[in-house]
Design goal:
43% strand, 2 helices, five-stranded antiparallel β-sheet, four-stranded mixed β-sheet, alpha+beta, signal, Lipoprotein
Length: 184
């Protein structure tokens, strides 16, 4: 065996060892880890609309206020160290004063709830809204401040399996009305 052949074998063996070492060290400590997706948000039909009536009336002339969600803005983030899912959501509400309205203001409530992957609601917060209507308009649009929900997770990758629900906080009569006459 010549010196040149021996040197080639040593170089070839060295290259194989180097490739093996590099393959074993494929996880770069500076490489960013992927972040799980945000949970999906839902506006169920039976709570996405609010109709307030005067007294026990159910006629169109008894309507004080009609409101519905016009959408929402939202985002989420994960605290990777503490294993916490942080959901930020800001609902947008459109409302119209009805023939029975007295005054230029309306009060209503909406909720934001979080459902875990097993189907159980684990958080629900109810928020008050006071809407002012301009003197010359019966329509108003309202975007609430950001609402934050935080939930500790055993497994961050379960975060996308959670669900966010938005809706109006309705009385039993209002919910029944929506179910009978609402959108399907």
């Amino acid at each position: 065996m010549t010196i040149a052949n021996g040197l080639r074998r040593v170089c070839a063996l060295g290259m194989l060892l180097l490739v093996g070492v590099l393959a074993a060290c494929s996880s770069n400590p500076f490489e960013e880890k992927p972040i799980p997706a945000c949970p999906r948000a839902f506006l169920p039909n039976d709570t996405a609309k609010l109709v307030q009536f005067r007294g026990d009336g159910k006629d169109l002339t008894d309507v004080i206020l009609e409101a519905e969600f016009d959408g929402y803005l939202g985002d989420c983030g994960y605290d990777l160290d503490d294993k916490v899912l942080n959901v930020i959501i800001s609902p947008v509400i459109r409302a119209e004063l009805g023939p029975a309205a007295q005054g230029r203001a309306a009060k209503l409530q909406y909720f934001v709830a979080l459902k875990d992957p097993t189907g159980e609601f684990i958080q629900k917060s109810v928020f008050d809204v006071s809407m002012a209507f301009p003197n010359n308009l019966n329509l108003a649009r309202y975007r609430d401040e950001q609402v934050t929900l935080n939930v500790s997770l055993d497994d961050l990758w379960a975060g996308p399996d959670y669900e966010i629900y938005l809706g109006f906080q309705l009385s039993a009569d209002q919910l029944d009305y929506n179910r009978r006459f609402g959108k399907n």
